[in-house]
Amino acid sequence: MGQTQQRQEPHEExxxxxxxxxxKCFITECPSGSLHxxxxxxxxxxxxxxPESQYMDNIFRAFDMNHDNTMDFIEYVAALHLVLRxxxxxxxxxxFKVFDSDDNGRLDRHELRKIVRIIYKIKNSSIxxxxxxxxxxxxxxxxxxxxxxxxxxxxQITMDEFLNGAQKSxxxxxxxxxxxxxxxxxxxxxxxxxILAAKDY
Length: 201
Prior knowledge:
The protein is mainly alpha-helical.
């Protein structure tokens, strides 16, 4: 127990530094204090017309907690904290929100197929089964997710079904962990900003 707490303390200190850096970057990019979708994509170096761009649309919508089509700094930091340090269940809840494009609390096959195809393109068609021997098509991935989590086989996935199924499935956790998480973009962006700041001195 004590060792775990010791390991977390430096991470928490680092996070405070990161929040200060994030605030400086946020205000530089968004002097108005409101971050719009095109600015959000620019901050993470995502070009329009790419699979990542479509994916960022869904991520931005999930981050926009008050649904005003902008993100303030509190929403921004809360979202990044969840993605970078949140518990598995919290990340899964957020992942569900990214998938649920009409925000009705259920995933149908159309919604799932759309996001799976985007992830499939991002991963260059390299999604495998647990053995690592069989490459899956995007349709097979969609079928597999429904098999894993649609408990009552009604063709729709509720939040509870998603959470229960994903927590039991290492394959699905791996699929989500690799893609429903802009950690790499955040770290790359922060690194680039620090390099630029160092050059200014």
